[in-house]
Amino acid sequence: MNILAIIGVLVAVVIGIFTVSSGGLFEDRGGGPIATGPGSREIRNPQPISRPGRVRPRVAPRPPTRTTPAPLPEPAPGVSAFRDAVRISTVRRSGTSPAEEYVILKHVDSRTDFEIDVTGWQIASLKSSALIPRAVRIPEIDVPEEDIVLPRGGVLTIVVGTPTYQRNFRENRCVGYLNQQHRFTPSLSSSCPDSRPDRGLLLARGFSGACIEFIERIPACRTPTIRFKDSSIGNECIAYINRNFTYAGCVANFRDRSDFLRNSWRVSLKRPTKLFDPRHDRVTLRDAQGLLVDEFEY
User: Fold this and answer.
1) Strands 169-172 vs 155-159: parallel, antiparallel or unpaired
2) Does 101 score more than 50 pLDDT?
3) 72 DSSP β-pair partners
4) Of 246, 279, 297, which is closest to residue 124 (Cα–Cα)?
5) What own/partner pairs with CB < 8 Å and gap ≥ 24 does 251-255 have?
6) Higher model confidence: residue 66 or residue 263?
7) Other CB atoms closer than 10 Å to residue 94's CB: what's the count?
8) What is the distance between the alpha carbons of residues 137 and 175, in angstroms, rounded to a whole number?
9) Contact at 8 Å (CB) between 122 and 290?
């Protein structure tokens, strides 16, 4: 073998060894683009291959979950839909006088802010019953009566007998003046909006010190008696007192305020005899359809 053939054989052997050890110059790694990067021999490109004419579908966002309030349960037969809305909160049974007996009802439903007309509802004991009457909106001012409509938190006091003040009425911020001539069971508020007169306003009117002191001594919700010895306060001061420190004057001055009317009513059944047993009884409240709203035992 000549020298050229020997050299050719050696070159072929060297090329074969290099191809096996390096994995080949043209090894197929499975297709796809190949990218190189630091720290590794090769990094397969993670981006997908675009295909013309194919659009990825858009996924609509999921609507938020809404909680629908559960419907109110249907009342049992004979039970009113107002079963949990109006409660008998107090029963006062006196020893002998029906004028000392009373029941207090409250609108206690907190599910929604709705009003309940309770006129014509029945309040009863085991031996007798009576219907809830109507009432005037502003006592001593309004004449026609209207249904009693309790808002949430509204209170109705029902006196069994005949009180000294016989009108049924809605309370307001000035009814404390009625305490001067009448006795109420339970008692009325003795707070009125004119109980603390504005001294600066009185000074601006030019009233004397004696007049201002007289006005500041007037008890809350009371019309003062002006005697001869008090005449020194002046005729203008006396006229101001007579015009403002009365029930009618209080109503005229404050009835336009948003908080003038209170959410409490007073009515009387004007019964000559007692309604409740002084020892033990069952008091029931029924709506205008005769369905049971609440009951109270003692």
Assistant:
1) unpaired
2) yes
3) none
4) 297
5) 251/138, 251/140, 251/141, 251/172, 251/174, 253/193, 253/194, 254/173, 254/174, 254/193, 254/194, 255/138, 255/172
6) 263
7) 16
8) 12
9) yes
Q: What type of residue sits at position 276?
A: F
Q: What is the pLDDT of residue 120?
A: 98
For the CA atoms of 213, 219, 221, 225, the dihedral, rounded to the nearest 10 degrees, stands at -70
Which residue has better confidence, 22 or 111? 111
pLDDT at 5: 52
| Cβ proximity of 212 and 241 under 8 Å | no
Is-contact 265 104, C-beta < 8 A?
no
pLDDT of residue 8: 52
**CB 210: neighbour CB atoms within 10 A?**
13
- 247-254 vs 235-244: helix axis angle to the nearest 10? 70
Find the mean pLDDT for residues 20-39: 38
Residue reference for tokens 């033990």: 280
| Average pLDDT, integer, range 135-162 | 97
Residue in 165, 196, 151, 150 with CA at minimum distance from that of residue 267: 165
Structure tokens at 187: 């008692």
**Contact call for residues 216 and 199 (beta carbons, < 8 A):** yes
Mean pLDDT of 220-243: 93
Q: How far is Cα 161 from Cα 272, in angstroms, rounded to an integer?
A: 6
